[in-house]
Write the structure tokens for this entry.
Amino acid sequence: QVQLVESGGGLVQTGGSLRLTCAASGISFSANSMGWYRQTPGKQRELVSWITPPGNTDSVGSVKGRFTISRDVAKSTLYLQMNSLRTEDTAVYYCNTLPWRSNWGQGTQVTVSS
């Protein structure tokens, strides 16, 4: 029933931008906070940005001012606008609810080169 499909990743240079998209079918945005998570080999998955049912947003300090989470409720789609990318942003990015469910999508690879 629940399906999460991330897209939009790619290879960019430092300072570049990417816009990630998450097609979140089977999830009610009116009942669930949604977030973007990322994971690098050798490190645990971390939540980086999220949006609550009323539309309030927040993010971890390392991406504040650079990443912006948004959503299209009618399309059940979540977005992450990533600007001023740094090499440390390199990771596989996933979308999921807060707290997360076990049915993760494939994720989308973001690679930032110097």
